[in-house]
Amino acid sequence: xxxxxxxxxxxxxxxxxxxxxxxxxxxxxxxxxxxxxxxxxxxxxxxxxxxxxxxxxxxxxxxxxxxxxxxxxxxxxxxxxxxxxxxxxxxxxxxxxxxxxxxxxxxxxxxxxxxxxxxxxxxxxxxxxxxxxxxxxxxxxxxxxxxxxxxxxxxxxxxxxxxxxxxxxxxxxxxxxxxxxxxxxxxxxxxxxxxxxxxxxxxxxxxxxxxxxxxxxxxxxxxxxxxxxxxxxxxxxxxxxxxxxxxxxxxxxxxxxxxxxxxxxxxxxxxxxxxxxxxxxxxxxxxxxxxxxxxxxxxxxxxxxxxxxxxxxxxxxxxxxxx
Length: 323
Ligand code: DGY
Known about the structure:
This protein is α/β, with parallel strands linked by helices. It folds into two domains: 5-101 and 293-311, NAD(P)-binding Rossmann-like Domain (Rossmann fold, 3-Layer(aba) Sandwich), CATH 3.40.50; 103-284, Rossmann fold (3-Layer(aba) Sandwich), CATH 3.40.50.720. The chain has twelve helices and twelve strands. A seven-stranded parallel sheet has the order 8-7-6-9-10-11-12, sandwiched between helices. Strand 1, helix 1 and strand 2 form a beta-alpha-beta unit. Residues 55, 77-79, 102, 287, 289-290 line the site of (2R)-2,3-dihydroxypropanoic acid (DGY).
Protein backbone atom coordinates (compact mmCIF):
# COMPACT_ATOMS: atom_id res chain seq x y z
CA UNK A 1 0.00 0.00 0.00
CA UNK A 2 1.27 3.50 -0.83
CA UNK A 3 2.46 5.34 2.24
CA UNK A 4 1.58 9.02 2.75
CA UNK A 5 4.28 11.41 1.57
CA UNK A 6 5.65 13.95 4.03
CA UNK A 7 7.93 16.80 2.98
CA UNK A 8 10.03 18.64 5.57
CA UNK A 9 11.39 21.96 4.38
CA UNK A 10 14.61 21.90 6.43
CA UNK A 11 17.06 19.30 7.65
CA UNK A 12 15.87 18.24 11.11
CA UNK A 13 17.71 15.89 13.51
CA UNK A 14 17.34 12.20 12.70
CA UNK A 15 16.03 11.23 16.13
CA UNK A 16 13.25 13.82 15.83
CA UNK A 17 12.01 12.61 12.46
CA UNK A 18 12.50 8.88 13.10
CA UNK A 19 8.81 8.33 14.05
CA UNK A 20 7.81 9.77 10.68
CA UNK A 21 10.21 7.54 8.72
CA UNK A 22 8.64 4.50 10.42
CA UNK A 23 5.23 5.28 9.00
CA UNK A 24 5.57 7.45 5.90
CA UNK A 25 7.62 8.21 2.83
CA UNK A 26 9.56 11.19 4.07
CA UNK A 27 11.66 13.63 2.11
CA UNK A 28 13.62 16.33 3.82
CA UNK A 29 15.32 19.37 2.25
CA UNK A 30 18.91 18.41 3.05
CA UNK A 31 20.21 21.80 4.23
CA UNK A 32 20.13 23.02 7.79
CA UNK A 33 20.71 26.70 7.07
CA UNK A 34 19.36 27.19 3.55
CA UNK A 35 15.75 27.97 2.73
CA UNK A 36 14.14 25.53 0.30
CA UNK A 37 13.80 27.19 -3.13
CA UNK A 38 10.28 28.09 -4.11
CA UNK A 39 10.15 25.74 -7.13
CA UNK A 40 11.25 22.78 -5.00
CA UNK A 41 8.72 23.66 -2.31
CA UNK A 42 5.90 23.89 -4.87
CA UNK A 43 6.84 20.61 -6.47
CA UNK A 44 7.20 18.74 -3.18
CA UNK A 45 4.02 20.20 -1.73
CA UNK A 46 2.07 19.13 -4.80
CA UNK A 47 2.69 15.46 -3.94
CA UNK A 48 2.62 15.70 -0.14
CA UNK A 49 -0.08 14.72 2.35
CA UNK A 50 1.81 16.58 5.05
CA UNK A 51 4.31 19.43 5.23
CA UNK A 52 6.55 20.46 8.08
CA UNK A 53 7.43 24.08 7.38
CA UNK A 54 9.61 26.85 8.74
CA UNK A 55 8.47 30.43 9.33
CA UNK A 56 10.54 31.42 6.30
CA UNK A 57 8.41 29.30 3.92
CA UNK A 58 5.57 31.11 2.17
CA UNK A 59 2.51 28.87 2.13
CA UNK A 60 0.06 30.77 0.00
CA UNK A 61 -2.88 30.37 -2.36
CA UNK A 62 -0.64 29.37 -5.27
CA UNK A 63 0.95 26.54 -3.29
CA UNK A 64 -2.27 25.34 -1.70
CA UNK A 65 -4.15 25.36 -4.99
CA UNK A 66 -1.78 22.83 -6.52
CA UNK A 67 -1.30 20.75 -3.36
CA UNK A 68 -4.47 18.74 -3.70
CA UNK A 69 -3.39 15.87 -1.45
CA UNK A 70 -2.30 18.06 1.41
CA UNK A 71 -4.00 17.39 4.76
CA UNK A 72 -1.78 19.04 7.33
CA UNK A 73 0.86 21.75 7.61
CA UNK A 74 2.88 21.78 10.83
CA UNK A 75 4.80 25.05 11.18
CA UNK A 76 7.86 25.01 13.45
CA UNK A 77 6.82 28.27 15.15
CA UNK A 78 4.02 29.68 17.22
CA UNK A 79 3.56 32.47 14.66
CA UNK A 80 1.94 31.49 11.38
CA UNK A 81 1.87 34.71 9.38
CA UNK A 82 3.80 32.85 6.66
CA UNK A 83 0.71 30.72 6.00
CA UNK A 84 -2.51 31.80 4.32
CA UNK A 85 -4.83 30.30 6.94
CA UNK A 86 -7.97 31.22 5.02
CA UNK A 87 -6.77 29.49 1.86
CA UNK A 88 -5.78 26.39 3.86
CA UNK A 89 -9.05 26.27 5.81
CA UNK A 90 -11.06 26.63 2.60
CA UNK A 91 -9.40 23.44 1.34
CA UNK A 92 -9.72 21.55 4.61
CA UNK A 93 -5.97 21.64 5.24
CA UNK A 94 -5.23 21.68 8.98
CA UNK A 95 -2.54 24.12 10.09
CA UNK A 96 -0.68 23.47 13.35
CA UNK A 97 1.74 25.69 15.23
CA UNK A 98 3.87 25.25 18.36
CA UNK A 99 2.36 27.22 21.24
CA UNK A 100 3.22 26.69 24.93
CA UNK A 101 6.46 24.74 24.44
CA UNK A 102 8.32 27.97 23.62
CA UNK A 103 6.65 30.40 25.99
CA UNK A 104 9.21 30.56 28.80
CA UNK A 105 12.22 30.33 26.48
CA UNK A 106 11.01 33.21 24.32
CA UNK A 107 10.22 35.28 27.40
CA UNK A 108 13.76 34.64 28.68
CA UNK A 109 15.24 35.91 25.43
CA UNK A 110 12.93 38.91 25.32
CA UNK A 111 13.96 39.91 28.80
CA UNK A 112 17.62 39.22 28.05
CA UNK A 113 17.36 41.51 25.03
CA UNK A 114 15.76 44.21 27.17
CA UNK A 115 18.55 43.94 29.74
CA UNK A 116 21.25 43.81 27.07
CA UNK A 117 19.89 46.94 25.40
CA UNK A 118 19.39 48.88 28.65
CA UNK A 119 22.83 47.96 30.01
CA UNK A 120 24.66 48.16 26.66
CA UNK A 121 25.99 44.63 26.98
CA UNK A 122 26.93 44.15 23.33
CA UNK A 123 28.83 47.44 23.17
CA UNK A 124 30.56 46.58 26.44
CA UNK A 125 31.56 43.10 25.27
CA UNK A 126 32.97 44.51 22.02
CA UNK A 127 34.75 47.28 23.94
CA UNK A 128 36.70 44.89 26.14
CA UNK A 129 37.59 42.50 23.31
CA UNK A 130 38.84 45.39 21.18
CA UNK A 131 41.30 46.30 23.98
CA UNK A 132 39.67 49.68 24.60
CA UNK A 133 39.38 49.31 28.38
CA UNK A 134 41.91 51.69 29.89
CA UNK A 135 40.40 52.44 33.31
CA UNK A 136 37.33 52.15 35.47
CA UNK A 137 35.52 55.43 34.85
CA UNK A 138 32.36 56.74 36.46
CA UNK A 139 30.32 56.96 33.28
CA UNK A 140 32.02 54.31 31.18
CA UNK A 141 29.32 52.49 29.19
CA UNK A 142 26.66 53.74 31.57
CA UNK A 143 23.25 52.44 30.59
CA UNK A 144 19.88 52.85 32.21
CA UNK A 145 18.21 51.02 35.10
CA UNK A 146 15.63 48.35 34.45
CA UNK A 147 14.43 47.69 37.99
CA UNK A 148 11.49 49.76 39.25
CA UNK A 149 10.84 51.17 35.76
CA UNK A 150 7.65 50.84 33.69
CA UNK A 151 7.38 48.14 31.06
CA UNK A 152 4.66 48.36 28.40
CA UNK A 153 3.87 45.05 26.73
CA UNK A 154 2.07 45.14 23.40
CA UNK A 155 0.61 41.68 22.82
CA UNK A 156 -0.29 40.07 26.13
CA UNK A 157 -0.48 36.46 24.97
CA UNK A 158 1.31 33.69 26.80
CA UNK A 159 4.77 35.05 26.00
CA UNK A 160 3.72 38.57 26.97
CA UNK A 161 2.47 37.28 30.31
CA UNK A 162 5.69 35.34 30.88
CA UNK A 163 7.65 38.55 30.20
CA UNK A 164 5.41 40.42 32.66
CA UNK A 165 6.15 37.74 35.24
CA UNK A 166 9.88 38.35 34.80
CA UNK A 167 9.33 42.11 34.99
CA UNK A 168 7.64 41.72 38.36
CA UNK A 169 10.85 40.11 39.62
CA UNK A 170 12.56 43.37 38.70
CA UNK A 171 9.91 45.34 40.64
CA UNK A 172 8.65 46.90 37.43
CA UNK A 173 5.27 48.49 36.88
CA UNK A 174 3.55 46.51 34.13
CA UNK A 175 1.30 48.11 31.53
CA UNK A 176 -0.12 46.17 28.63
CA UNK A 177 -2.10 46.68 25.47
CA UNK A 178 -3.83 43.81 23.73
CA UNK A 179 -6.71 43.07 21.34
CA UNK A 180 -8.74 42.08 24.36
CA UNK A 181 -8.37 42.61 28.09
CA UNK A 182 -7.11 39.73 30.18
CA UNK A 183 -8.51 40.23 33.65
CA UNK A 184 -6.94 37.04 34.94
CA UNK A 185 -3.47 38.16 33.83
CA UNK A 186 -4.10 41.58 35.34
CA UNK A 187 -4.80 39.98 38.70
CA UNK A 188 -2.03 37.42 38.56
CA UNK A 189 0.63 39.85 37.33
CA UNK A 190 -0.60 43.11 38.76
CA UNK A 191 -0.67 44.40 35.18
CA UNK A 192 -2.62 47.44 34.05
CA UNK A 193 -4.50 47.48 30.77
CA UNK A 194 -4.24 50.75 28.89
CA UNK A 195 -4.69 52.18 25.42
CA UNK A 196 -1.84 51.89 22.91
CA UNK A 197 -1.17 55.63 23.20
CA UNK A 198 -1.15 55.60 27.01
CA UNK A 199 1.32 52.72 26.95
CA UNK A 200 3.60 54.53 24.50
CA UNK A 201 3.52 57.70 26.59
CA UNK A 202 4.21 56.03 29.94
CA UNK A 203 6.48 53.05 29.32
CA UNK A 204 10.24 53.17 29.80
CA UNK A 205 10.46 49.89 27.90
CA UNK A 206 8.01 49.26 25.08
CA UNK A 207 8.03 45.56 24.29
CA UNK A 208 6.38 44.31 21.12
CA UNK A 209 5.21 40.69 21.18
CA UNK A 210 2.25 41.15 18.89
CA UNK A 211 1.65 38.66 16.08
CA UNK A 212 1.73 39.97 12.52
CA UNK A 213 -1.79 40.48 11.20
CA UNK A 214 -3.48 43.02 8.93
CA UNK A 215 -4.25 45.04 12.06
CA UNK A 216 -0.71 45.02 13.49
CA UNK A 217 1.21 45.62 10.23
CA UNK A 218 3.49 48.62 10.90
CA UNK A 219 1.63 49.40 14.12
CA UNK A 220 4.88 50.95 15.33
CA UNK A 221 5.10 53.81 12.86
CA UNK A 222 6.46 57.36 13.03
CA UNK A 223 3.51 58.58 15.12
CA UNK A 224 3.97 55.73 17.60
CA UNK A 225 7.68 56.46 18.10
CA UNK A 226 6.90 60.20 18.47
CA UNK A 227 4.60 59.38 21.40
CA UNK A 228 7.27 57.46 23.32
CA UNK A 229 9.52 59.04 25.93
CA UNK A 230 12.86 60.24 24.59
CA UNK A 231 14.45 57.87 27.10
CA UNK A 232 12.32 54.91 25.96
CA UNK A 233 13.82 51.63 24.83
CA UNK A 234 11.94 49.68 22.18
CA UNK A 235 12.15 45.88 22.12
CA UNK A 236 10.73 43.72 19.34
CA UNK A 237 10.55 39.96 19.74
CA UNK A 238 7.25 39.51 17.88
CA UNK A 239 7.41 40.00 14.13
CA UNK A 240 9.49 42.50 12.18
CA UNK A 241 6.73 43.83 9.96
CA UNK A 242 4.81 45.07 12.99
CA UNK A 243 7.37 47.89 12.84
CA UNK A 244 7.97 50.49 10.17
CA UNK A 245 11.75 50.06 10.22
CA UNK A 246 12.44 53.36 8.46
CA UNK A 247 10.42 55.16 11.13
CA UNK A 248 12.32 53.27 13.85
CA UNK A 249 15.64 54.24 12.27
CA UNK A 250 14.59 57.90 12.10
CA UNK A 251 13.37 57.82 15.72
CA UNK A 252 16.76 56.48 16.84
CA UNK A 253 18.78 58.92 14.74
CA UNK A 254 16.64 61.89 15.86
CA UNK A 255 16.95 60.71 19.49
CA UNK A 256 13.20 60.50 19.66
CA UNK A 257 13.80 57.23 21.54
CA UNK A 258 16.98 56.03 23.26
CA UNK A 259 17.66 52.54 21.93
CA UNK A 260 16.19 49.40 20.41
CA UNK A 261 16.63 45.66 20.90
CA UNK A 262 15.46 43.68 17.90
CA UNK A 263 15.16 39.93 17.46
CA UNK A 264 12.95 40.11 14.38
CA UNK A 265 13.01 42.08 11.13
CA UNK A 266 10.66 42.88 8.28
CA UNK A 267 12.93 40.92 5.95
CA UNK A 268 14.86 37.99 7.34
CA UNK A 269 17.73 37.50 7.17
CA UNK A 270 18.31 41.25 7.44
CA UNK A 271 21.03 42.62 5.12
CA UNK A 272 24.37 43.20 6.79
CA UNK A 273 24.39 46.79 5.50
CA UNK A 274 20.87 47.57 6.74
CA UNK A 275 20.88 51.08 8.33
CA UNK A 276 19.52 49.76 11.65
CA UNK A 277 22.52 47.47 12.06
CA UNK A 278 24.90 50.42 11.80
CA UNK A 279 23.57 52.10 14.97
CA UNK A 280 25.45 51.57 18.25
CA UNK A 281 22.24 51.81 20.26
CA UNK A 282 20.62 48.89 18.41
CA UNK A 283 21.08 45.39 19.76
CA UNK A 284 20.19 43.03 16.92
CA UNK A 285 19.71 39.27 17.11
CA UNK A 286 18.96 36.77 14.31
CA UNK A 287 15.44 35.70 15.39
CA UNK A 288 16.54 33.44 18.24
CA UNK A 289 13.59 33.96 20.61
CA UNK A 290 12.86 30.27 21.02
CA UNK A 291 16.36 29.05 20.19
CA UNK A 292 17.42 26.74 22.97
CA UNK A 293 18.11 23.12 22.18
CA UNK A 294 15.41 21.97 24.59
CA UNK A 295 12.75 24.22 23.13
CA UNK A 296 13.61 23.80 19.46
CA UNK A 297 13.55 20.02 19.96
CA UNK A 298 10.17 20.31 21.67
CA UNK A 299 8.85 22.43 18.78
CA UNK A 300 10.06 19.97 16.13
CA UNK A 301 8.71 17.02 18.09
CA UNK A 302 5.32 18.69 18.44
CA UNK A 303 5.23 19.20 14.67
CA UNK A 304 5.89 15.51 14.08
CA UNK A 305 3.20 14.53 16.57
CA UNK A 306 0.71 16.83 14.87
CA UNK A 307 1.48 15.33 11.47
CA UNK A 308 1.07 11.78 12.76
CA UNK A 309 -2.19 12.64 14.53
CA UNK A 310 -3.77 14.16 11.41
CA UNK A 311 -2.54 11.43 9.06
CA UNK A 312 -3.98 8.85 11.46
CA UNK A 313 -7.32 10.62 11.41
CA UNK A 314 -7.01 11.92 14.97
CA UNK A 315 -7.32 15.42 16.39
CA UNK A 316 -4.08 17.41 16.12
CA UNK A 317 -2.53 18.56 19.40
CA UNK A 318 -2.12 22.21 18.53
CA UNK A 319 -4.19 23.33 15.55
CA UNK A 320 -4.14 27.05 14.84
CA UNK A 321 -7.07 28.33 16.85
CA UNK A 322 -8.61 30.76 14.36
CA UNK A 323 -9.57 27.90 12.04
C1 DGY B 1 7.79 31.72 16.67
O1 DGY B 1 7.66 30.57 17.07
O2 DGY B 1 6.89 32.31 16.06
C2 DGY B 1 9.08 32.37 16.96
O3 DGY B 1 9.19 33.59 16.36
C3 DGY B 1 10.21 31.45 16.56
O4 DGY B 1 11.31 31.74 17.36
